[in-house]
Amino acid sequence: MGEKALLVDKIIEEIKGGKYRPHDKLPSENELADQHKVPRMVVRKAYERLQELGYIFSKQGKGSFVQNQKLQIPLILTGDVSFTEKMQEMGYNFETKNIYCEQIEYDASIYHSLKASQHDIVFKIGRLRIVDGCPIAVHVSYVKETVFQDIGQTGKSITSMFQYYKSKGYAGFGPMKTQLSVVFPNEAERNLLRCSSLIPLLFLESGCMDRKTGTVLEHSKIFYRSDCFTYVI
């Protein structure tokens, strides 16, 4: 067995044995190289392999940290309760970060779902969902400016779209056609969710409408880390 494989096995054993707990910072490449009397490149390759396997994640300029592998959150894919409300009801240490609000180029499928014309302005609002410090999902909502005229100004501060819709007078939410699939993360999704390319994502594409008026409120794309959830259909 090569030096890299031995080091990978050693660190996995230490993580499983409790020497390193979720979110603990691991020794630097130089520290580990000195400790195990191996070249720094061996440590770098070992850390890369551990990240691929989902045991650790890296922060730019800060080092490598132990990934939380114990999350098994019940994921309920039906109902009209927001994701934020579901997490709070289950008592998770939960937070949402707004990561962008951007106008999009014309996309036929999204515009069709929103019942928008080619001349309509559509924004996408992205939120990163985090439980116990671990990013678990990315939610992207697409909305028409004609329905929400202030979205370009307020979109960057929204963390709950349901709460935003309620503030605009919409109270009853109904689901639209939903498509469920499994995909592997691209580089941007890996960086956001701190997961390896080997961890599949549950991809949910759907929409939401106001039950009373029939107004289409959003088209949504949601990416869930498959290793963090159990599924309730």
TrEMBL record:
A Gene Ontology BP annotation from the UniProt entry: negative regulation of DNA-templated transcription
Domain HTH gntR-type span(s) in chain numbering: 1-69
Keywords, comma-separated and alphabetical: DNA-binding, Transcription, Transcription regulation
SMART domains hit by this protein: HTH_GNTR (SM00345), UTRA (SM00866)
InterPro entries: Bact_HTH_transcr_reg, Chorismate_lyase_/UTRA_dom_sf, Tscrpt_reg_HTH_GntR, UTRA, WH-like_DNA-bd_sf, WH_DNA-bd_sf
PANTHER family assigned to the protein according to its UniProt record, in alphabetical order: MANNOSYL-D-GLYCERATE TRANSPORT/METABOLISM SYSTEM REPRESSOR MNGR-RELATED, MANNOSYL-D-GLYCERATE TRANSPORT_METABOLISM SYSTEM REPRESSOR MNGR-RELATED
Protein name: GntR family transcriptional regulator
Pfam families documented for this protein: GntR, UTRA
SUPFAM superfamilies membership: Chorismate lyase-like, Winged helix' DNA-binding domain
MF-aspect GO terms: DNA binding; DNA-binding transcription factor activity
Organism listed in the record: Mesobacillus foraminis
